[in-house]
Amino acid sequence: MYKHLFTFCLALSCLALRAQNVGGITANCLASHIYNNCGTTGYITFGFSSTSGANTVSPDPLTIQQSNLSVGININTPKAKLHIKGSGTDTTSSLLVNNSANAEVFRILNNGNIGVGIATPQTKLAVNGTITTTKVKVTQTGWPDFVFSSNYTLPELPQLERYIATYQHLPGIVSAAEVEKNGVDLGDNQAAMLQKLEELTLYVIRQNKEIETLKEENKKLLSMQAQLDELKKQIQAGAGR
Fold this sequence. Notes:
By secondary structure, the chain is of the alpha+beta class. Helix content is 36%, strand content 17%.
């Protein structure tokens, strides 16, 4: 087996070093060692054609670049420690990782969509499972500060009550059936919930004003009642003389 492995590595080494004719292969009972000693301009490539690889327009399947110690897959000049250039259609997988049981763990498609536990991600990040994080930031436009505008019409409570009785959810908030079918957009839902909170704040402010008005009216009524009681006592006292 070692003999065949040595022969295979020797063939690959000869192919990879054909342009520079610099480097070689060493082997012992522990390992076969392929090297290119061209310095920072050196490459080791593995391919299937004599016209592809480093310094050509056609990349080999595997390229190792000495200058930055980077590995490229389907790319001649890798820009990272592992640089993969995809190919094919949008749904072609550029990277696939399986676990020890050969079950899929992670996949990146050619269109940039990433799936974790999902073979056909339809969005930039699709996760089949629970995500644990310390913070989530959602950028959103159309934040509902318009509720506090002077020309905003606050729905009347009887109108709101009729809506709830008919549809079993707040207006502007997605229904349970919609969430079960299509999920919920966190940004849109947060904005809608904030709008309801701001409307509720306005209801509370208006209610508080009404309560304060009732308190003042109640004070007046109590004062009038006290005056009537005093007048009644005076009348009763005069009648008893």
